[in-house]
Amino acid sequence: MANRQADKEQTPISTNLSDNLQKIETIFTNCQDLQILNWRYGPDLEHTAFSVYFGTLIQEKKLNYMKASLQDLVTHEVGPATMVTPEDVMFFFERHGVSAQSAILLNDMDQAVQDILNGHLVIFFNQWNKALSYPAMGLHSRQITEPITEPVVQGPHMSTVENLQQNIGLLRSLLKSPRFKIETFTTGQETRREVMFGYLEGAVNPESLAEFRRRIRDLDKEEILETSYIEEWIEESAYSPFPQVRYTERPDTAVAALLDGRIVVMVGGTPTILICPGLFVEFFATSEDYYQRTVFTTLIRLLRIGAFLMALTLPSIYIALSTFHPELIPTVLLLAILDTREGIPFPAFVEALIMEFFFELLREAGIRLPRPIGPAVSIVGALVIGEAAMQAKIASPMMVIVVALTGIASFAIPQYSMAITLRILRFPLMVLASTLGGFGMMIFFLLTFLHLTCLRSLGQPYMMTLAPMQGRQWRDVFIRFPLKALMHSPRNRHLHKFPRN
């Protein structure tokens, strides 16, 4: 994977400095931030060279340091500046290298162009068919802070950033093992975005790793801007509403996934880490589950499962009971519901559809609004619209309560992608509940279970641990056993039929 670019036909660097300068100027036409500096050396300054870099990418401090370092190098290690020849320069750099500042020796013009775009200072000498490339990227990256999308209750308060090398360093600092393997490759002809995937040798399932490599085989031809672009390349079913990979910004979560035999994927320029394969039961667990006591973690997990069922079924249950099965509602509660629905011109399904639409609209608007006013507008908007809907007899108080509880329950799902799934599935379930009642809900769940049992993620069953059932692995699904009963070495974990989570 990492050697794909080596197979391309190279464009040699010319020994004629004017030809190299013309190629550079032609390639970077109308690039106003490109800096080309011509300079001379040798007896009577008869020999020429030029350096080229992007002023918007180079750090000025590094640039000045490299200039001084190169001047000192030429003067003291090669010879007096007035006596240096191209032969001296070639001999020194090809045989001795550079002492003060590491340089990369290039003999391919395409690679030199790519290094310039990557924030390097590239120097061409006359009568020499090679170039020197100094790394000098000077863009400031975001500092490591707390995760934005995954608030930390207890545990490390570190988040990944947009710098890929820094993210890899975070993982290396937490997983200090030579079996932690990292492979990188470059994608796209224009973006040239660096992509990295890592795994723990001995813990990862070899079949899943082989399937992952097969699916990203042609990814280097695509323009990848964010980690989520890769999701559709590796997922089993692009049209399934259920997510087949997980996302995180927490290094400890990524390392835990590596220990469990997962593959992590990162892309330069984005802080998101993709974890695959993603199994159904993993979307209800968080890193804090292993930082808290067993009893508390078990209660929280059961609460999440209840929130999942509530967010999916609560509006549909209300519609089915009030429309088709009122005999199942206690008499006192039924009279209270009928009293609140007095004067409502819509059936329960239309009423629920209107309120769900308003709630989803407020939720989306709260995300897009500026951060200081977004939450306030969402809360005030929900209160005002709910009160106005009841006063205008568009919705009953009971329906407002049902929709509000449904929205709150969806926020209890740890993974945002699974919460989106609930938002999608809620509406067809409401349609079936309004047309066939409880029988329609039963049909929906049968079809959903059939889809889940057939779905696979990188060759592994999506419902692994639940279907096919493996009782031993239930120690970390609905309840969490004490850590001493769960923790074990990840070495050769792929030999077990069903790894933990």
Question: What does the model show?
Answer:
By secondary structure, this protein is α+β, with helices and mostly antiparallel strands. It has three domains: 4-135, no CATH class; 164-278, no CATH class; 290-461, no CATH class. The chain is built from 15 helices and twelve strands. It has helices at residues 17-27, 60-78, 86-96, 109-117, 164-174, 206-215, 231-234, 251-259, 294-323, 331-340, 348-368, 374-391, 397-411, 416-436, 438-454, and strands at 34-41, 47-54, 104-106, 120-125, 131-135, 180-187, 193-200, 246-248, 263-267, 273-276, 456-457, 460-461. The chain has a five-stranded antiparallel beta sheet, with helices on both faces. A hairpin with a 5-residue loop joins strand 9 (263-267) and strand 10. Helix 9 (294-323) runs antiparallel to helix 13, helix 11 runs antiparallel to helix 12 (374-391) and helix 11 (348-368) packs across helix 13 (397-411). The longest helix has 30 residues, at 294-323. It is elongated, with a radius of gyration of 30 Å.
